[in-house]
Amino acid sequence: MENSKSAIVMSIVIEKIQFIVGIIFLLVFGLCTVVSLADAELASDGFLVFCLVVDGLCILLIYFSRKRHKLNTDFKKYVSALSGDPTGSILNLANAMGTSEDLVSKNLNKMIEKKYFAYAYIDKRKNCIVLSNQVETMGVASTAGNVSSFTEVSQGMVTVHCKGCGGVNAISKGQSAECEYCGSLLQG
């Protein structure tokens, strides 16, 4: 559970650092590029080429920051959609997101690779994502507005809907645990 939360926080921090560093260096070296374009002597020493290369690298850094931001945003949407669909069906998730199954599958693989979903995997035979906190005997989970709700899924286990992110978590009945997705405290 802690792995998932730390991976998400780390990704958000990296996203912000990439974006800020990319913008600052692009402004500085972009200005240097403009100055070296106006000064032929400065441009002839290879400074212009250096500035153009750094500008390109900064643009790539900003691009990767935006891709990471999109993945982080999609993760929140996926968690919300998956909490309402305990089957984890990629088809249902794609329909809820308004995108193709291939894109959803690709994004889920990236999220699993980056440990957003700790100990999850994609079952290609059933075309669904299987989360570590899911129990095979799990029935349809219920939700009650903004309050954490639970359904008993097996002897001593309950599914709890996080009031922070809406994620579905299976925890021991009567025990406290952290939400696997956002780290909020849950009561079973």
Descriptive labels:
single chain, 188 residues, alpha+beta, three-stranded antiparallel sheet, two-stranded antiparallel sheet, 5 helices, 7 strands
Descriptive account of the structure:
Helix 1 (2-38) runs antiparallel to helix 3 (47-83). The two termini are 15 Å apart. Helices cover 53% and strands 14% of the residues. The protein has helices spanning 2-38, 40-44, 47-83, 90-97, 101-113, and strands spanning 121-123, 128-130, 150-154, 157-161, 168-172, 176-178, 185-187. It is elongated and about 75 Å long. The longest helix is centred in the N-terminal third of the chain and has 37 residues, at 2-38. Residues 134-155 have low confidence and may be disordered. It is an alpha+beta fold and 188 residues long. The protein has a 3-stranded antiparallel sheet. It contains 5 helices and 7 strands; from the N terminus they run H-H-H-H-H-E-E-E-E-E-E-E.
Topology at a glance:
Layout: H1 2-38, H2 40-44, H3 47-83, H4 90-97, H5 101-113, E1 121-123, E2 128-130, E3 150-154, E4 157-161, E5 168-172, E6 176-178, E7 185-187
Antiparallel strand pairs: 1-2, 3-4, 4-5, 6-7
Helix pairs in contact: 1-3, 4-5
How are the strands of the largest sheet arranged? 3-4-5
H/E element string? HHHHHEEEEEEE
User: Oligomerization state of this entry?
Assistant: single chain
By DSSP (H or I, 4+ residues per run), the number of helices equals: 5
